[in-house]
Amino acid sequence: MRLTLSLATAANPRSWPILDGTVKPDGIDLVPTVIHPSEMFWRQLKFQDFDISEMSMSSLMMATAHGNDDWIGIPIFTTRKFFHTEILVRRDAGINEPKDLKGKRVGVPEYQQTAALWTRGALQHEFGVHQTDMEHWMERVPTHSHGGATAFKPPPGTTIHQVPIEKSLGQMMVSGELQATIHYLRDNNLVDRSRVDLEHHPDIKTLFPDPIAEGVRYHQKTGIFPINHGMVIRREIAEKHPWTVLNLLKAYDQANEIANRQRIAHVEYHVWAGLISAEAGKALREPAIRQGIKANRKTLETAAQYSHEQGLTPRLMKLEELFAPSAMGQ
Q1: Which position has the higher pLDDT, 15 or 28?
Q2: Per DSSP, what are the bridge partners of residue 180?
Q3: What is each CA distance from 7 to 19, 33, 73, 271, 323, in whole angstroms?
């Protein structure tokens, strides 16, 4: 079976064996296209361009909750990150800790995007800062946003302004019109328009002075490594050819093993060369990422909880609604 596949431009090493053909799913001939995720999700949600693709977990939950049954999830998770550690703030805004975000003007590329979902969840549950405490400014316009394709409406009590089309989050951060921004994106694609390098701008800093230390703290406390992107397949294909789901999952497990072997080889070298300690090497040998529902249930259910809490989904989404039945036991 010949199927089109879309993966993110920043595909991690666990996707490379799929992209370059080192690993081939049994019975499936994949025709890959590499696209920026912001553009990919918009195209999939609005135009259903590809048979299989990465997908924003937040958008999958929202689309499914509002009756869009074009896609069914496969528990393959391609990107993860501690998104709240990446919040950027103006140095002159008086924002030195999360509670200082209350009452501030905060930019976000797309209010419903998974990175923003996780960031708001961490702010609420770790630091007592709720979405209603901030004034939000969204860059993407409805015609080119995930929200435009999933019938997104601002949750009750939440203030969301549209960034004027002639401006961008980057410009508004530099000018002082915004005081902070969540998950800033300046990559060239069809839906994001910011281009200013805020990371190296003298007037901008990260909210957390040591983002890595905050990520470690969060993970040690919660046990959660936030999932951003999963994989989806056209529901009509999965229902007509149910074997495709587990064959794809099996292929990604094989690709994951290749990436793990490469990672461990790097760890062994760094320990041997004295670049990291034996203790660090022991920790790094442990697999950080596993596919499937069983290994990721807590993280997925937390994302669903946050989505409902934040008013993105009208009810608490069950994993059985989001993922193919044959994959639920994996």
Answers
A1: 28
A2: 89, 106
A3: 8, 6, 15, 33, 19
Q: What is the DSSP letter of 276?
A: S
Nearest to 154 by CA among 119, 122, 110: 110
CA distance 78 to 12: 7
CB 109 within 8 A of CB 38: yes
b/e map of 184-201 (b: 16 or more CB within 10 Å)? bbbeebebbbbebebeee
Those residues whose C-beta lies under 8 Å from the C-beta of residue 232, and which sit 6 or more positions away, are 44, 52, 53, 54, 55, 60, 71, 72, 73, 74
Q: What is the DSSP letter of 304?
A: H
Lay out the sheet containing 180-181: strands in order across.
159-162, 135-138, 105-108, 180-181, 88-90, 204-206
Residue 306: band (very low, low, confident or very high) from pLDDT cuts 50, 70, 90: very high
CB atoms near residue 269 (< 10 Å): 12
β-pair type (105-108, 135-138): parallel
- Count CB neighbours of 131 within 10 A: 23
Name residue 85's amino acid. Answer: T
Residue located via tokens 């074009």 = 70
Q: Tell me the per-residue pLDDT of 110-169, one tens digit each, with 9 for 90 and over.
A: 999 999 999 999 999 999 999 999 999 999 988 888 887 887 889 999 999 999 999 999
Bridge partner list, 135? 105, 159
Q: Which domains does the chain carry?
A: 2-81+227-256+290-327 (3.40.190.10), 83-222 (3.40.190.10)
CB 18 within 8 A of CB 254: no
pTM for the whole structure: 0.93
Measure the CA–CA gap between 268 and 273, rounded to whole angstroms.
9
